[in-house]
Amino acid sequence: VNQCYLIFTMSAMTARIAIFLALLVVIDIFYFHLQHSNIFTTETIEKDLVGHDSDQSRQPSEEMDSAGLEDDAKHGIVDEIKNDAKEEGKEEDKDEDFVIDETGWAQGFVGSSESTLISIDDGRCQCELLSIDCLNTIECVVVMKDKSPQSHVIYQGMVKRETIKEMANYLEEDFSSFSSWYPIGKSFQVISKALFREWMKRNKLWKALGNRHEEPIDDKTFDFCVTNSLQGRRCVIKEFKEPEEIGEIEEIAIKRHGNSTEEIKALKTQYKSDLLKFRKNGFGTSPYEYLLLFSHFSRIGFNLRSHILDVYRQRVKTIPTSSLEEENFKKDNILRVALHVRRGDSCGHSLNGYEKEHSPLDSVAQVSGIRMCYETSVYMDALSRIQSLAKGRHLVVYVATDHLLDLMSEIEKDHSKLYRQCTWKYVHHSRDIFNYSHTLRGDSQFIEFSENHGVLGETALMDIWHLSHGEVFVGHLGSRFGKLSWWQAIARHNTFVPFFTVDGHSVCCDIDEACERVAPAITSMENCLTFSRDETEYKTNATEYWQKGSFVRYQLAADEIEYRKNLDPSYQPPKSYNSTY
Q1: Rounded CA gap, 515 and 506, in Å?
Q2: Tens of pLDDT along 483-509?
Q3: Among candidate residues 398, 494, 457, 511, the one with its CA nearest the CA of residue 145
Q4: I want to staple 485 with a disulfide (CB 3.0 to 4.6 A). Which of 206, 467, 494, 525 is the partner?
């Protein structure tokens, strides 16, 4: 027995020694690998921040329309950023791969300023995003246009969006997280929020929208889509990382400023640093920076394909067709105004009985069935104010409405002076498209259920692109279509766009909310820009909802405040916050 025990003991010791030696070998191999590889090194983090495919050439599915410019001039921004992606920015603070706390993400919080007050031109002008009227900031917009050519600011915005796309990593799956029935405005509001949040959280973006049939897009009418088997919104929207399609405004910006390789490199280096700081310090970001960057992500998600823009260029018309606009344009003496006049299904297809004044902030929630339309004079009064604030600049008005001929005839007849003094641009869609009476299914009052929903979707895409030309916005910010158009305009001009919203709904407020009553619960820019009742799990009181609107934002605010206090016990919610309503 003793002999057997001794043999067993010696065998066990030998096994322990063998395991110990094996562990030493593994540790040595791991240490050698760590020294001679990029695991956990700043070089790996650099690659992660720049993007896995920074060396891969892009293969756009379509060529951008040249419009008289050289192709290499148009794509110069993309090429420069792509070629230099690895060589610059190594001195930046990239010692960790920053990912936002998962606990906060359970509620969707991605960090932002606690204020919704936008400061412009070093604080000379301010706009409270919880208000419905910020036309007073036009004064500063005009001053900034005089200080720095607007074409240069636009060019810088294009470089920033390309930098975002070059730095990002791309998910393998496509994005389809919304109903195929969603109208254009609502779906692209969802897309804008999703892209911003995913980038903010992980520096990642989806590659493209899902390729599936969707009601708002008639993909069979486009040869390009049929040939390439593209369906739904994928038929009209390019992959997110592809070079963006551009219009006349961007063409001019590139022509004037796109030949400086050194400037592209300098801007790109600066933006890389700024973007990293933004992701790390989102809660300390100014409201203006937050709004501007969010709008750029909205633009990345609304990258129309060239065949849609070809149709747009064919349909856009100008009144008058004189050289007045061209003469003022050469002098940089114009101010573009986006005018969104919402009628049709938004007020039960009524042709009269419109509101004679704009709705105040304390007006009721405009849930389905009690939405309002407004007389033309409401919009013209705002346009007259803009004219007086524009300091002699010629107004070019970009009109989007489903009652175009009636509207323009009324303006010409009842507001003749303003009609003659401005240049008017509109997209000439067939009038029959908006004759809802014979296209609505059954007893429905909503265009989402129209038999020609696909054609209406295409007109919406073109009208959003049209309104994005505006440097000032007049219309309906309670409408998701209106909000999206405003974000697109901010991104396009790479600066704040003053607004006047006739429907009593602020930038931060949804159409089914009583804006003044929910304002105390809008505790941050993140809450302002990315909240949507449809995308939360919060419950509404059905009776209360149809009588008074949605108040679930208070539930979101309570959770957001609790989350922030867990991060920082000294955190105090904004003074305006009230936990009850």
Answers
A1: 7
A2: 999 999 999 999 999 999 999 999 999
A3: 494
A4: 467
